[in-house]
Amino acid sequence: MGKTLFEKIWESHIVVEKQNEPDLIYIDRHLVHEVTSPQAFDGLRMNNRKVRRPDLTIATMDHNVPTTNRSLPMLDETSSIQIKTLENNCKDFGIKLFDINSPNQGIVHVIGPQLGITLPGSTIVCGDSHTSTHGAFGALALGIGTSEVEHVLASQTLWLEKPKTFEVRVEGKRKNTHAVTAKDIILSIIKNIGTAGGTGTVIEYRGEGISDLSMDQRMTICNMSIEGGARAGLIAPDEKTFDYLRNREYTPKNYESLVDSWRDDLKTDSDATFDKQFILDINDITPQVSWGTNPGMTCDVDEPIPSPDEFSNGDPNQKKGAEKALEYMDLKPGTMIEDIKIDRVFIGSCTNARLEDLIEASKIIQGQKVASNVSAMVVPGSQMVKKQAEEMGLDKIFTDANFEWREAGCSMCLGMNPDILSPGERCASTSNRNFEGRQGNGGRTHLVSPVMAAAAAINGHFVDVRKLDLN
Amino acid sequence: MKGNIIKYPRDNIDTDVIIPGQYLKVHDYAELATHAMEGLDPDFHSKVKEGDFILSGKNFGCGSSREHAPIALSHCGVKAILALSFARIFYRNSVDGAFLLPIEIDQDAYDGISEGDEIDIDVSKNEIKNITKNQTYKMKPFSEIIGKIIAAGGLFKYKPDQD
């Protein structure tokens, strides 16, 4: 019987395999950031261990870095200590660090692919759940906790239970590819499979609706695999993948011969079977907007907010969850999405802060102004994205429209730095999680695509971007 | 293992409410513990006691990979989470650092156990006794692999069986 892409990558990385034991899996790349690594380095010191492969370990600081002027001292002392700690740990253990002043600094899941560190067929781990992003290149990329970070630092391996396989097939063609984006596809998938639909599985996204996407868009899809509960998300590499990684700063010297073998090996066999399957038809897909407090609580832009009864399908906990979510979000069933007014707009995060996201958003706002009651910001995913955008004049388009144009980092996606919502503020956000308090205590998050966020900024409320002329 | 139940009868309790992002900078576990569940239940810290168990619905611990979540709960004295299902990273984090036991329960246990009930968990028999109500429920056994990591006392103490 044939094998899936996931099974091929898994099997080629097994170091130890025994009946009724976890597999010991070799890790090709380990990405490290300031928040989930300090205790891991402490553990190494306590046990007199070294980092086994510093050459396969790359660090940056992204979660709590300020996105304002970096020539000024940091005001938040605890963040400052965490950043200094990463600098010291990288120095002590010989790890390459892209620090706060590096032109390569950025969100770890944005810089990996941009630098050619993320490679097809490889295993990648990081102490961050959105590591699934790198699966867009056909890498098996897993988010791990701090104990596992320490284990990988010490041994370059991990004891893992083999996940099940889950095929998500995206069929059809979007009618308006500027208005309906990869973000809408992945939100729609999560709305259908649920936030635990992928638990214990690695998703492989397949079909015309996926192969049509650019690499930036594919990363948006794989990024949110974890929001559907999956261990990872994968897309088989193709010529778009190979073109993207060619001539990057860390692209391997023997790249073309690697591409030749990837082209042959890195695909699911035609007779392979998956443990689970879901099919999404995107011919009639619309922009998606989350209304609740998890990414599964999402509806079409032209739909009213569902009642807890409609949402729950008879499940009492789902019903209670929807009631609590509506109360937290201060929304009523039956309200049309386009009637929801917003206070803040955040275009950023590892989900949607790549160059293409910023280009698409800039088209919406060009020559217009942010609504007077809204404050809006763009936080590029990396300093490299920021520089490329500035070379194209995008910063000028955003600042002319009264958007703030910031330095790279995770920023308002998770509220670890000063970029947070105030209690009760409502935000159109291109990030990945609308959990209670995620963007700041009492803050209310609506997950949307960059074009939907940009249009909301201009209008002060959500608008169906399919109505706008985007060509 | 005996303890009392703190029940949150809802699904999808995420790691952002277990320990909000702003506290991920806190290095001192005792201080971290004072903010556990702050995003969901501001009274949690005043009611939790050493040896307590939390009971909740589906997909407990979804979201971020922050190991701070099981660490914060365990440093409040919580010894186990009983839930209808768990998000995988939280589940593995709980076990890897031997912070607490993630125990999957069925609907009978979920419905039958109330806030404050005294519970006795017997992992060797995969059994949960409700001492307060004199009822017994089954727990889902740990997979052989997870059971071995738990028995070893965490990821760093685990060694595969020798041939």
- Poorly predicted runs of chain A are none
Low-confidence blocks of residues of chain B: none
Radius of gyration of chain B: 15 Å
Estimated share of beta-strand residues of chain B: 15-25%
Task: Report the structural category of chain A.
Answer: alpha/beta
Estimate percent helicity of chain A.
25-40%
- The best one-word shape of chain A is globular
Estimate the mean pLDDT confidence of chain A. Answer: 97
Secondary structure: elements and pairs:
The complex is a heterodimer of chains A (471) and B (163).
Chain A: H1 5-11, E1 14-16, E2 23-26, E3 29-32, H2 38-46, E4 57-60, H3 77-93, E5 96-98, H4 108-114, E6 123-126, E7 140-143, H5 146-155, E8 157-160, E9 164-171, H6 182-193, E10 201-206, H7 208-211, H8 215-223, E11 232-234, H9 239-245, H10 255-265, E12 276-281, E13 288-290, E14 298-300, H11 308-312, H12 316-329, E15 344-347, H13 355-365, E16 375-378, H14 383-391, H15 394-400, E17 403-405, E18 426-429, E19 444-447, H16 450-459
Parallel strand pairs in A: 3-4, 3-6, 4-5, 6-7, 9-10, 9-12, 10-11, 15-16, 15-18, 16-17, 18-19
Antiparallel strand pairs in A: 1-2, 2-8, 13-14
Helix pairs in contact in A: 2-5, 6-8, 13-16
Chain B: E1 2-8, H1 15-18, H2 29-33, H3 44-47, E2 53-56, H4 68-74, E3 80-83, H5 88-96, E4 101-104, H6 107-112, E5 118-122, E6 127-130, E7 135-138, H7 144-152
Parallel strand pairs in B: 1-2, 2-3, 3-4
Antiparallel strand pairs in B: 1-5, 5-6, 6-7
